Amino acid sequence: MSKRIVILGAGESGVGAALLAQKQGFEVFVSDKSVIKDIFKKELIENGLAFEEGGHTDLKIMNAQIVVKSPGIPDSAPLVMALRKKGIPLVSEIEFAAKFTDARFVCITGSNGKTTTAMLIYHVLSGAGLNVGLAGNIGTSLARQIFNNPTKDCYVLELSSFQLDGMYNFKADIAVLMNITPDHLDRYDYKMQNYIDSKFRIIQNQTKEDCFIYCLDDENIVKGLKERKIQAHQLPFAYGQELESGAFIKDDKIVFNLKGDTMSVFMEQLAIQGRHNHYNTMAAGIVARLFQIRKPLIRECLLSFKGVEHRLEKVLKVRGVTFINDSKATNINSTWYALESINSNIIWIAGGVDKGNDYAELKEMAGKKVKALVCLGTDNAKLLESFKGTVPTVVEATSMAEAVSKAYRLGDKGDIVLLSPACASFDLFDNYEHRGRLFKECVRNL
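The line above is the sequence of UDP-N-acetylmuramoylalanine--D-glutamate ligase; the predicted structure tokens follow.
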């Protein structure tokens, strides 16, 4: 008798998990509280997969032997709590899919920089000729990729805290922890320790045969290290100190040092600039060294990487005013790095769904660099209160077109209009990609 699996959520990861589960002989049922997008509904129908949309039917779900839950569904949801009470295992798509491949896993998490770092690692490994996949919180789901081709050498996985929360037996061969700064605290009872613990799940089940790469400059990571016994081989990276094993900055170069075997790249030659991208490059370079890729090839790949859409992406210069799309900056720390990386006067577009933000961390930087703030959201009260008196001009907008127009009018030749929201996008947009695309469209229409 086949094992019954229920998939909650019919997006990319859910449908990927359904296809893989069916291929592995499970009896599959997919349930989505919302209307399923046509592209995914078509796949479910064509593959003969049972599903429902617009609500959950308890009778069809509570008889599952295992449930794969979308990371977007909080643990506090009544259905999730009922499943846990009944003792039915709930796992993430990553936890489920990983059992069906022998590939190595390079896993990246952090409050900021994980997408860029994951894509940079993928760029280097694929550039070196490895048969590598890129999945997790980015692109095509891991389950779908294993369904299509289970024979890859390795997967680079960008993992959110929500995905990590649903992972129990999974193990990263190489774990990368970029940073831990306040984010998604609304999902963690507004307790920073809960969020830190979630991020450190990246190293669960690691042995001394595995590697843990992390930022030694991050105080929350350093605190977390002291609270844990780390089994894996540790390879830190840092700005301010030379390291015997890991990566660091010296004489305007990033130095990678693995037990005295060193290589370096000049920071000014990197296509992606800014302190945050130096950290991303340090992490990616250490991973490349662990794969024993030839040094000239590592250097070539690190220098040729052009960055990620919606992350400090230059859009256009309009009559001397430069527009930069940083829509992916959905938290305070990410926006801090964006402001820090710009040396011109900034007209800053910010706002959206606040996830428990403390804007005090941005006040000093904003006071030095921001000449005007355009608050874009359905409720801008907290932003207005936080920056009134710090930024000379603060205005509101209720649409992207209005925000771009106001920002442009406030700018002078040589200024930069920066969309770096520090908030989630769900009040006015589908997601940060939708927000970023609309920003670019509105800029092109000026």
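Note on the example: The CA atoms of residues 83 and 345 lie 53 Å apart. The chain has a mean pLDDT of 93.
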